[in-house]
Design goal:
single chain; mainly beta; Jelly Rolls; 2 domains; five-stranded antiparallel beta sheet; four-stranded antiparallel beta sheet; 2 helices
């Protein structure tokens, strides 16, 4: 009798991760903000409230460390992921410190080191920007000797055109101070208005939400996690898991 692998046959979520489910994929968005104060801030590397582009534009990749460069010991190239002006998924790999790319981004929600020299990662803080607007950062940890993280930490996402998102789970943790954490959404047809989807209150701990009925996020909607603290310098991290299902066409 032929052997049947029940794990592979029955774990639908695993097959989504393997790219074996037609019309569906998932994204795990994780981020941190190491200095949240008494006003609302987005949970991302750059600190403060995130600024979205209003028109699509090309981006540049720069670093605070000269060893992050085309022939350097640190990060040499960085891949940027996001959406174009039609909310379709796009990506581009750019040289650190090189000229602007050719792909126009309307949203940027992830970047990572694609190639490096002997250090194996970024040696300084890498910024992905359009003009004076920083859209993503790849940071470092440790002092006085720092280690690059190799990837953005952004609790930010925009649902691509032709898909509907379903948030099954999100979690957060805080340190150094208590905080109020908000999952917020701005729909494409909401006239620029943000709407809170859920809230958590922390006592310097971690909390997780698992939804029996997932939160539905329409195509072209922006999603992010925001926080504020009763005292300055709160550390906050947040992660949400979203399933993207292709919309049915008539």
């Amino acid at each position: 009798m032929a052997f049947k692998n029940y794990l592979w046959d029955e774990a639908w979520e695993l097959n989504v991760s393997r790219g074996k489910v037609r019309g569906a994929f998932h994204v795990i968005k994780f981020g941190e903000n190491l200095d949240v104060d008494g006003s609302m801030e987005t949970i991302w590397d750059g600190g403060g409230l995130y600024t979205y582009l209003t028109t699509a534009a090309v981006v540049t990749v720069t670093s605070t460390d000269g060893d992050d460069a085309a022939a350097g010991t640190g990060a040499r190239t960085v891949t940027v992921e996001g959406l174009d002006s039609n909310y379709n998924q796009v990506s581009e790999t750019l040289t650190v410190g090189g000229s602007a790319g050719s792909v126009e981004f309307f949203r940027v929600f992830r970047a990572f080191v694609a190639s490096s020299g002997s250090s194996g990662t970024n040696e300084g803080t890498i910024s992905i920007a359009s003009g004076s607007t920083t859209l993503a950062q790849i940071g470092t940890v440790g002092s006085p000797t720092s280690t690059g993280l190799g990837q953005t930490f952004m609790s930010i996402y925009t649902v691509p055109a032709g898909y509907t998102g379903f948030i099954y789970q999100w979690n957060m943790s805080t340190a150094k101070s208590d905080g109020d954490i908000f999952l917020v959404k701005r729909g494409h047809n909401d006239n620029g208005a943000w709407r809170t989807q859920d809230v958590m209150h922390t006592n310097q701990n971690s909390i997780e939400r698992n939804y029996k009925f997932p939160l539905k996020i329409e195509e072209k909607s922006d999603i992010e996690v925001r926080a504020l603290s009763i005292a300055n310098n709160m550390k906050c991290s947040a992660t949400f898991c979203i399933l993207l299902v292709q919309n049915e066409t008539e």
